[in-house]
Amino acid sequence: MARSLSSILLKGFAGFPAARFTTLASGSFYQHGMRLSTTVPNDPDTHEDFRPTNKLESSDLSLKDIVEQDVKDNPVMIYMKGVPDLPRCGFSSLAVRVLNEYNVPLSARNILEDPELKNAVKTFSNWPTFPQIFIKGEFIGGSDIILNMHQTGELREKLKDIAANQEKPE
Fold first, then answer.
1. Is 29 part of any domain?
2. Residue 111 sits in a domain of what CATH number?
3. Could you tell me the pTM of the whole model?
């Protein structure tokens, strides 16, 4: 008994069936013996302030309008998997690293949070893959194009006035 107990402690609890990762159709799963949920129950006791909200749904703008406004209002806009501080894809990470070399303000939306936004961006740019980068309202492309522009010096020229505006003291 002592030997089996010590082997459990040394190997961790992963050997127990209840500790394995199991996905359920309801949005719940078990991991390390704990039931976790990816959905919020429709519980009348949950206060409205603590329920998740989708800011895009609560606005009167269509998704197309939101994408147009993002591209128009932000000198450098990137639609990516994840966020600049925590990219969820190598291509998105590469694009952020290249753009950060120029010290420009970077605006971003995480397309993983809203599949409808992802489709709206694809339709807007007529480009199927992500990340998608827009500079001064113009669709540039993805991480491969940004990297190539960086290597040839073309990206420095395109971002020169945006970077210069960042360096001016206010």
1. no
2. 3.40.30.10
3. 0.64
